[in-house]
Each structure stands twice: as C-alpha cells, then as structure tokens.
Specification:
Layout lengths: L2 H4 L4 H19 L10 E5 L3 E7 L8 E6 L2 E8 L18 E8 L10 E5 L2 E7 L15
Antiparallel strand pairs: 1-2, 2-7, 3-4, 4-5, 6-7
C-alpha cells in the first residue's frame, strides 16, 4: 500500500472491521456455551412437568419439538436480518443460526396430551405424566 493510499483510510472504519473480526473469532470459539441455549426452567408435580424456554424472536414455524421415551428435543433456527444496500452493522449481539437441545425428562410423558404455546418469546410446554409411569399405591393386606 502506498503512502497516498494510507491518507484515504478511515482509521475508525478499520477499527470497526478489526472489532467485527475479533467478535466473530470469539463467538465461534465460545460455541460450547450454546449447548445451554435456550435458557430453560423446569418444574414438576406428581402429574406433569412444565418447561419454559426463552426464545425471543422465534416464530412457531422456526421451532421443532419431539419426545422419544424420556427425552425432549428442541430444535430451532433464526435467520440473520438482511441489511439494505449501504447499511452495515454498528453492533451485532443477537445470535442467529440453528440450535438443538435435548433434555432428559424426570418421567415418561403422555405425548397425546402435551401442550405447547409460544407467547412473548417464551415457549411453555406442559408435559402430562404417562398413566403407566405414575406411582401406584400398593395396599397391604393382613393375614
């Protein structure tokens, strides 16, 4: 690069470019943390489990749920927002791409009665316990 070319370089633009590249590098290195995405809460009663998962910006068509035996699998994807011509990111912190998370459930679930709702970026799953998996009280007989 010639000296006259250096005079036309915007140092702030170059710093932004370096910052973006460093962010990209560190984000790809921190992918193991993605195994805990989305953040979830799980609570149970004798008859059901309830799971809430934070999925802001996702639509129902972006999320797939499946239950096999005692495992719940949640998959999803979100596309990067397209910028118009002449636009560039000043800061980009929201993630995009695909995720997949599998959780072991505390009991077998009656999959025919599962209820899943997505509201205000929170996915709420109500997972009724399978009748065959519910504890049975055993009566003790006297002789």
């Amino acid at each position: 690069m010639l000296f006259r070319d250096l005079m036309n370089v915007n140092p702030w633009q170059e710093m932004d470019h370096i910052r973006e590249e460093m962010n990209r590098l560190f984000n790809s290195a921190s992918r193991p943390a993605a195994r805990f995405y989305p953040a979830m809460n799980i609570w149970t009663s004798q008859d059901a489990a309830v799971i809430t998962a934070e999925l802001p910006g996702y639509r129902t068509k972006d999320i797939q749920l499946s239950i096999t035996n005692d495992e719940l699998e949640i998959k999803g994807s979100r596309q990067q927002e397209a910028l118009k011509d002449g636009e560039q990111y000043h800061r980009q912190e929201r993630g995009y791409g695909e995720f997949e998370r599998t959780l072991r459930l505390p009991f077998l679930v009656d999959t025919a009665k599962v209820d899943a709702k997505l509201e205000n970026g929170i996915l709420k799953l109500t997972l009724p316990r399978a009748e065959a998996d519910k504890p049975k009280k055993i009566e003790i007989k006297t002789a």
